[in-house]
User: Fold this.
Amino acid sequence: MKYDKTVLVTGGAGFIGSNYLNFAVPEYPNYQFINLDALTYAAKLNNVHIEKLPNYLFVEADIRDANKLAEILNSET
Assistant:
């Protein structure tokens, strides 16, 4: 599906990011949301309750990995 916009959320398995995603993903079905999280000590994927929605994608990666970030953005946008 072609989305109007792509939204990259870093730290989306943390408290703030997961609450944002749980609100925004169902609210904006015409936007694609990419949750990029390294799943360190504070992150929990069970905070995110929208994983089955088609406009949501989780990627386990570190934001400091420039090659992985470029790969994600080039393939998903």
Notes: The beta strands are 5-10, 31-37, 56-60. Residues 68 and 74 are 10 Å apart (CA to CA).
